[in-house]
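Olfactory receptor
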Amino acid sequence: MTPGQLALASGNHTAVTQFILLGFSNYPDLQELLFGAFLLVYSMTVLGNLGMMALIFTDARLHSPMYFFLSVLSFLDICYSSVVTPKLLVSLLASDKSISFAGCVVQLTFFVVHVTAESFLLASMALDRFMAICRPLHYGSVMTKRTCLQLVAASYAFGGANSAIQTGNVFTLPFCGPNQVTHYFCDIPPLLRLACANTATAEMVLYIFSALVTLLPAAIILTSYSFVLVAIGRMSSAARREKALSTCASHFLAIAIFYGTVVFTYVQPHGSTSDTNGQVVSVFYTIVIPMLNPFIYSLRNKEVKDALQRKLQAHILPC
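Predicted structure tokens:
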């Protein structure tokens, strides 16, 4: 039985008004070191992604669908990292590690919105590469500004729908006693373990919808890139092949890291990983990946590197 079910069986029906985020409290000697490390990573996340957005918006040569999607990806990375990391930083230094019930609901709601939106945005980016490489003659007429905005809006719509389902799935359950969340933010699996009810249905809902919002975009991505790789292989020009592989490789690396960690956390049988392993994996997709994306795209993309070089020359070496 879970702690919540044990509380219900013992007759403890006190309604939970706040949760205690245990997070990394098992390592009291490392709190300041972890604070410094996470603060550094979060600062690099915000600065790196803001820098990427500013570079794309101010450089006319980057005003294309691919870089529009990349700027939205940077925005999403800042958003869902900011939902989690500031609270973690406070908890690492403060003795009070609590979060109100309403605060927990809000944190989970916005986290699921932005993570789900990023999943579908990555699929949109794969479709963009498919059209650019496999259907170049139709690219301009299909990937218009309106189409790009619609794809971003659809990503957020899927995010909002999944968030409403997942958040409702958790917080319609009764919480009547245990309130210690074995995580550093309000995530679904550790919250379900505290519920004072049978969570079999809730776990099934989590598994099904997590699979849908993860595996459906992943299928679109894999299908798109299968056609892309075939098209690249048929290119006669080595320079064109190198340029196409450069832009696709950075995208595919970001996808592999993101989906690998999300699938490990949500799309597997409940309880098959320990709390420690779950926290370590969560650190990657909530804190580390948002920092890595700007570096992945800038280091692997010649156009981004050229745009950055132009900006640096214009502002640092104006003469």
